[in-house]
Amino acid sequence: MLPTEGATAVRAGAATEGGILRRSAATVAPLAVGLAALAAGSVALAAVSSGFNNFVLTTLINLTIVVGLYVFIGTSGVLSFGHISFMAIGAYTAALTTIPTGQKQFILPNLPRFIAHAELTTTESLLLAGVAAALAAVVVGVPLMRLNGIAAAIATLAALVIVNVVASQWASLTGGATALVGVPVTTTAHSVLLWACAAVAVAWAFQRSRVGLRLRASREDLIAARGAGIGIVGERLFAFVLSGFIVGVAGAIYGHYLGAFSPDQFYFHLTFFTLAMLVVGGISSLSGAVVGTLAISTVQEILGRLENGEGVGPIHLNLRDGVTDAVLAIIVLVIMIVRPAGITGGRELSLPRPRRVPRVIAPSRPAASEREDA
Amino acid sequence: MTQHVVDALSAGSLDALLALGIALVFGVMHLVNFAHGELIMVGSYVILSFAGLPWPITVLLAVFSVAGTALLMERVAFRPVRHASPTTMLVTSFAVSILLQSLAVIVAGRRPKGTSFGAGLSRPVVIAGTRVALVDIVSIAVAAVLVGLLVLFLKRTWTGVAMRGAAEDFTMARLLGVDANLVIAAAFIMSGVLAAAAAVLLVAQTGTVSPTMGLQPVLIGFVATVIGGIGTLAGAAVGGFVLGVVTVVLQEALPLSTRGYRDAFVFGFVILVLLVRPGGLFGSRALEERV
Question: How many domains does chain A have?
Answer without folding.
Answer: 2
